[in-house]
Design brief:
This protein is 10% helix and 43% strand. It starts with a strand and ends with a strand.
Length: 252
C-alpha cells in the first residue's frame, strides 16, 4: 500500500493512501491502528508533503562499489554512517534551496530510503523486517565542495531542504532488487539496482540499532550509486525507485 501525507486546499494536513490515482483519507496512526474516513481526493487537488516526520535520517556512505570508485575511496569494512537533520526534510515537488553563500557545487544523490515502523534497538538481522514500515525515495543532496573540505559530513549534508523524501511510502515491496534512477532535467544520470548495495537493508538496520535507537518514522538512507553530479538553480531533479514512484524537486 502507498501511504502519503498531504495538505488539502483548505490547508489541513492529513494522511491517506494512494490507489488508482486517488487519495483516500485515513485517521489514526499509520504505524499502528488506522481507518479510512470515507473522504477521497484527486491527486491534483492535494499537495504532497514529506510522507513521514522522522526524528532523524541516518544515512550510509559508500554503499555501492561503483560510487566508492568514482570518489576514489576505499570500500568501508562496516557501514559508514552520518546523519541529516529533520530540518533538511522537504516533500515531493518542493524546492531545494541552493546555499550559494557557502557552496559552489551542490549534487544530487538518488537513494532508496527505509522507513522505520516501530522502536528498534539491538535488532538481529533475521528480525530486521519486523521493524520496517515501508520504503520511499530520498535525494541525499550534498554540497560536494564542503564535503571535500570538511572532516565530517554535517555541513555538506545538513542544509535546510537537503533531504527531499517521497512521494509515498510503499509498504509491500521487497527492497533487495529494485531499479533506481536519477534524472536531471529529464536526462538519465544514475541507474542501478538495489541488489548492488554492499550492506543490505537487514544489516544496516541491525548495525544502526546497536548505535542508536530508531523510532517510528525514522529513515535509513541506504546509499547512492555512481553517476553523482552537480545541480544548478532552475534544474529539475527526479529520483525514481521501482515500485515506489517518482520524487520530483526543483532547485531554487
Amino acid at each position: 500500500m502507498k501511504f502519503l501525507r498531504y495538505k488539502t486546499k483548505d490547508g489541513k494536513v492529513k494522511h491517506g493512501y494512494l490507489e488508482e490515482g486517488k487519495v483516500f483519507e485515513i485517521t489514526g496512526d499509520i504505524h499502528g491502528e488506522h481507518h479510512p474516513t470515507g473522504d477521497e481526493y484527486k491527486v491534483n487537488n492535494i499537495k504532497f508533503l514529506a510522507p513521514c516526520s522522522p526524528s532523524k535520517i541516518v544515512a550510509v556512505g559508500l554503499n555501492y562499489r561503483d560510487h566508492a570508485e568514482e570518489l576514489k575511496k576505499k570500500i568501508p569494512g562496516e557501514p559508514l554512517l552520518f546523519m541529516k537533520p529533520s530540518t533538511s526534510i522537504i516533500g515531493h515537488e518542493d524546492k531545494i534551496i541552493y546555499p550559494s553563500h557557502m557552496s559552489s557545487r551542490v549534487d544530487y544523490e538518488g537513494e532508496l530510503a527505509v522507513v522505520i515502523g516501530k522502536e528498534a534497538k539491538w535488532v538481529n538481522e533475521s528480525e530486521a523486517f519486523q521493524y520496517i514500515f515501508g520504503y520511499t525515495c530520498i535525494n541525499d543532496v550534498t554540497a560536494r565542495d564542503l564535503q571535500v573540505k570538511d572532516v565530517q559530513y554535517t555541513r555538506a549534508k545538513g542544509f535546510d531542504t537537503f533531504a527531499p523524501i517521497g512521494p509515498v511510502i510503499e509498504t509491500e515491496i521487497d527492497p533487495s532488487d529494485l531499479e533506481i534512477s536519477t534524472f536531471l532535467n529529464g536526462e538519465l544520470k544514475q541507474h542501478s539496482r538495489t541488489s548492488e548495495i554492499i550492506f543490505k537493508v537487514p544489516r544496516l538496520l541491525s548495525f544502526i540499532s546497536r548505535v542508536m535507537t530508531l523510532l517510528p518514522g525514522d529513515i535509513i538512507a541506504t546509499g547512492t550509486p555512481s553517476g553523482i553530479g552537480p545541480m544548478k538553480i532552475s534544474d529539475k531533479i527526479e529520483i525514481k525507485v521501482e515500485g515506489i514512484g517518482n520524487l520530483k524537486n526543483y532547485v531554487a
